[in-house]
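Same chain as my last thread, 389 residues:
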Amino acid sequence: MKKHSRSLYASILILFLAGCASTPEVKQKTVFYPEPPELPRVQFLTSFTSSKDIEPDKSAFSRYVTGVKENIRRLDKPYGVAIHDGKIYVCDTNSTVVVFDLNKRTVQPLTGAQGRGKLSQPINISIDKNGNKYVSDPIRQQVLVYDKNEFFVKAYGTAGDWKPVDAVAYEDKLYVADAKNGEIKVFSLETGEIVQKFGKLGEPKDWLAIPTNIVFDNEGFLYVSDTGRFQIVKLDRDGNFRGTIGQLGSQLGSFARPRGIAIDHDNRLYAVDAAFDNVQIFTKEGQLLFFFGKAGKQPGDMFPPAKVVVDYKNIEYFKRYADPSFEIEALVLVTNQFGTSLVNVYGLGKEKGKKYPTEEELKKMAEEQLKKLKKENPEGKTDEGEKKE
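reply #2:
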């Protein structure tokens, strides 16, 4: 009996020591884009893949004493992402919308995504200024709306011959990308009725093919990521063609698999390409400024990226990850569909005390780089492009 007691005591002691022992924290290597010696414009900050990335670490001893088992919730195949009021909302396409609460340090499914608000395949999410969430579900064939408290409110559209893959509210209307019919459907936010459809106006060369992601700029123009055209298409709110950004190709400024897009305060366009595993940044006129990201499985790498979001209101939650010499001006979130880092968070900013080139200077530098690439490779092929083909 005494021997058994000593054995039990020893087991508890081992668990206690394992829980209390201070494991040296391995400092993550600082990852900048572009790489030194160039001036940094983007720093990889951290990533979110499972509850282990946010929830408090419970020691083996505390779990033994309380009898609570470690319950890890992991993202499976994310696409859409949004951040609002200290919460990161991730569309896990094989389950539901998963919420990473940065204040409570918890990971939970979206509260209202059950019953009438249950999701079949959430693919994209956008959040308006009032905290309402618009989730596109191509399997349910509706756009579901959840309020600021995450409760289900209503759904737009009915099941039928369409495929809603992204939705953004602008003023009193909801704009929805219909990938199946190659058009944008416009709903009245109040009545839920379709009030307009566009995507096939003007010359056939200006028509949409397979719109997958949409975003509005600060002037009210609608940008559409079109995987069928291999371009980003610019439209006004009546659907009139206003121009394109990029074209099919493997060089910088081109696209092979364009996906998520975002707009920052300066109306610069951020565009994900799942073939090149990067995010390219353009002026509102469509001139390439710079890009960041590369294929791989190291911190900050992309594999393959799906959605990009730019945010200014939640920087405080991530300042502790920033290099002391780097000042963050905005957050950039990018989802990866596979790998060990499924939601990457980057900081857009500048190194303190350094003089950076103006936007005009950046455009000239990008133009020179493109000319050099075209001269070296007139057919527009790269090793990575050939490999991916």
